[in-house]
Amino acid sequence: MRHEKHEKQDLVRFGVAMEPALLAQIDHLAEQRGSNRSELLRDLARAEVVESLVQKRVPAVASITMVYNHHVRELTERLNAIQHELEDQVRSTMHVHLDHDHCLEVIVMRGRSDQLKAAADRLLGTRGVTHGGVEIIAVAALGERGEGRAVHDHGDGEHDHAHPHRAPAHKRRKG
């Protein structure tokens, strides 16, 4: 999840009641991540909002990560054929040889959330894929354009995007 510094006027304070044991677990998790309660709760809320948006068949982006044994008969050809069938939904792929038997592939996609989920299920369910997962993010969850973000115009209206130009940009914390 991306962390942004917020100005105090951008935040609304409110009270939350929870059991002391759960609060202690939240504090411990926040400490492990090097953050605080508020930041952790914002991250959890954002994740839940994204999850609810993705269920509504909305424009989205996705990353599919999979590990597979490339010695499985015709697996590479099947994975490539699926990606070609998906046409312009597949935006980028990265292929890494992990060892003599295993490859890691990351596929970045853009499209409607339900179609991205179906594509991920198909790819990850292919015989020979041993590990994997998908992260789908609704485009609407990325924030409104122009709100402290620079918009990059690619001239076709479809691929324009916005992101902050503050260091460090696109930082992700591991949990």
The gist of it:
With 175 residues, this protein is an alpha+beta fold. Helix content is 31%, strand content 26%.
Structure description:
The protein is of the alpha+beta class and 175 residues long. Among the domains are: 17-54; 59-139, ACT-like. Chain A, domain 2 (Alpha-Beta Plaits). Helices cover 31% and strands 26% of the residues. The chain is built from four helices and six strands; from the N terminus they run H-H-E-H-E-E-H-E-E-E. The chain has helices at residues 20-33, 37-54, 75-85, 113-124; strands spanning 59-69, 90-97, 102-112, 129-138, 150-152, 161-163. The strands form two sheets. It has a four-stranded antiparallel beta sheet with strand order 2-3-1-4. The chain has a two-stranded antiparallel ribbon with strand order 5-6. The chain is elongated, with a radius of gyration of 19 Å. Mean pLDDT is 79; it is low at 145-157 and 163-175.
Give the helix/strand class.
alpha+beta
What is the overall shape? elongated
CATH class of the domain at 59-139 equals: Alpha Beta
The count of DSSP E runs of length 2 or more, i.e. the number of strands, is 6
Strand arrangement within the widest β-sheet reads 2-3-1-4
Any idea what the CATH superfamily of the domain at 59-139 is called?
ACT-like. Chain A, domain 2
Strand content: 25-35%
Distance between the termini: 10 Å
Q: Sheet bearing the most strands, described?
A: 4 strands, antiparallel
What is the tally of helical segments? 4
Question: What is the CATH architecture term of the domain at 59-139?
Answer: 2-Layer Sandwich
* Percent of residues in helices: 25-40%
Ranges where pLDDT stays below 50 over 5 or more residues in a row are 145-157, 163-175
Average of pLDDT: 79
Run of helices and strands? HHEHEEHEEE
Kindly report the CATH topology of the domain at 59-139: Alpha-Beta Plaits
Computed Rg:
19 Å
